[in-house]
Amino acid sequence: MHWKIAYAQVKKIPRGRVMTYGQLAAAVKLPGGARSAGRAMAASPSGKGIPWHRVVGAGGRLLLREPNVWMQRRLLESEGVRVAERRILDFKMRQWLPVRKKRKA
DNA sequence: CATCTGACGACCG
DNA sequence: GCGGTCGCCAGAT
After folding, report:
1. What pLDDT sits at residue A52?
2. How many domains does chain A have?
């Protein structure tokens, strides 16, 4: 589907930064909103270089289920993103706003 | 075509 | 701060 665009956006997420499903959905204007973003990631073809692990739930929460969340956490930590069980630490700073970022210090 | 399910998000207790 | 519920929308069965 047009999930391609979602993937394209995800690929733009810089290393060590994350985006929420809601943001992603809004950024590419996915019809179903955040949920569709989630579906898109769930169906994301692995091995295509899509940093799906950089897409998290609102508030920087890891919404994946048991086995996968561990991998996501590991991938994030490998990029320097600190994670506590199911939540990204310093999410506010870690969050990446497409193009018009400019987060305050 | 009816129903269920879910990698969501906002609210409420 | 956390868990439970409701609302939403798109796919799958």
Report:
1. 93
2. 1
